Amino acid sequence: MDPHAPLTGGSRALRVGIGGPVGSGKTALVAALCRALGAQLRLAVVTNDIYTTEDADFLLRNGVLPAERIRAVETGCCPHTAIRDDISANLDAVEDLESSLGPLDLVLLESGGDNLTATFSKGLIDQQIFVVDVSGGDKVPRKGGPGVTTADLLVINKTDLAPLVGADLSVMDRDARARRGDLPTVFLSLAEDRGATPVADWIRGLVAARAAG
Amino acid sequence: MSLATLLLLADGRLPSGGHAHSAGLEAQVTAGRVRSVADLDGFLRGKLATGGLVSAAFAAAACADATRWADLDAGLDARTPSPALRRASRAQGRALLRAGRAMWPVAGVGREPHQPVALGALAAAAGLSPGQAAVAAAHGAITGPASAAVRLLGLDPYRVHALLARLAPECDRIAEVAASRSGDAVDRLPASGAPLLDIGAEYHATWEVRLFAS
Question: Quick check: is A134 in a domain?
Fold first, then answer.
């Protein structure tokens, strides 16, 4: 049997990519999703740090997942390459998790912090979330880029900071709708919603739809 | 034997995991031993004469004879004293096979062989010759760390490619030597090593902050 044959849809976990610029809150979102979903779903995480295992260590320190459910992939200065152009190390990590842990419902793949053009390959993930935050300025959705425009879910994070940085959420909402058409956008403040409720609900919907076949 | 097929196999854009590996360069850069294009010249010549020759000979041998894959794999274990480098070689073999299997059917080489064995097996599956497998191996032995040098040191990419062009004849020569020995018994195949790279790899594997997987 070909040891690299792709697993067919129903027999492997749902893979959700989480991308976005540096500091937008990707790792905090992953931690929140682990807290919200860890008791209900068989869950594992792959992190793609730019140069260290910092993100994996953050998840371990915060005790959101046991060590055997987290893998860190090193990306040779090129975080976007590892999630888009050469996805081999991430696929190896996902397969290793599934073979060591048994069947999983959900694998979250967190990209290294990159820029507005970073998106995941469809050979690696089923759905992708792009995380931006209000402190980058309310112009970010208008600037667009593949992450904002094409992600299956856009998360606008740190809404609690909006008054402090002079960001107008209604402008961000309007621009996101204009850029994204029917694709969903959610506003989030992990400081106020430690379980990332709208994102966790979106993922629950994906897992349920997948189980229903 | 298709030349375009050989170019595909040797292309740095092949999604075979190579971008995350520096072939030992990161440890030497951090130690201050490689800082310039001139230093890189020395590093790459050393790489070609040691690991490049070994990789090329084993890739050629694996391409020539599928019945020797297991023995060749064990022969590479014996030639790679650093556990970190053995892991890196198998990780790259696995990733190369993943890419290769999407292009050509390969059976019987296992899930995670050493990279040169994977390369030779793929070259055979693609209808290439042992000599071409050796060229691809020698070429990869220097283009990988050259690309890493551009990223690690911010070297002028044109000067780095000028260096690679100067090294091309030596790359061909090493590949010829390697291919001419591809029928040798595994114990007689080239076994040149680079102890400083072995030590560097073990040291590198313990770092908390690093850019490359090896």
Answer: yes
Residue A80, in any domain of the structure: yes
| Domains by residue range for chain B, with CATH | 18-204 (1.10.4190.10)
Residues of B in contact with A78 (CB under 8 A): 19-20, 151
- List all residues 6 or more positions away from B108 whose beta carbon is below 8 Å from its beta carbon: B66, B69
Residue with the larger pLDDT of the pair A133 and B210: A133
pLDDT confidence of residue A8: 47
Instruction: Match 């055997």 to its residue by tokens.
Output: A68
Structural domain harbouring A151: 13-211
Q: Is A95 on the interface with B (CB under 8 A)?
A: no
Chain A residues with CB under 8 Å of B101 CB are: 2, 4
Asked if A76 lies within 8 A of B22 by C-beta distance, the reply is yes
pLDDT at B177 exceeding the cut of 60: yes
Locate the chain B residue with the closest alpha carbon to A85.
Answer: B15
Q: Please check whether residue B208 touches A, CB under 8 A.
A: yes
Partner B contacted by A148 (CB < 8 A): no
Largest interatomic CA distance in chain B: 45
Q: Is residue A107 part of a domain?
A: yes
Burial B144-167 (b: 16+ CB within 10 A, else e): bbbbbbbbbbebeeeebeebbeeb
State the average pLDDT over residues B207-214: 86
Q: What is the mean pLDDT of each run of 10 residues along chain A (213 residues)?
A: 51 93 92 94 89 73 85 83 92 94 96 84 95 90 89 96 94 94 95 95 95 84
B16: tokens are: 């075979």
* pLDDT confidence of residue A143: 87
CATH assignment of the domain containing A141: 3.40.50.300
Closest CA to A199 of A12, A35, A84: A35
ipTM: 0.84
State the angle between helix axes of B130-153 and B157-180 in degrees (0 to 180), rounded to the nearest 10: 150
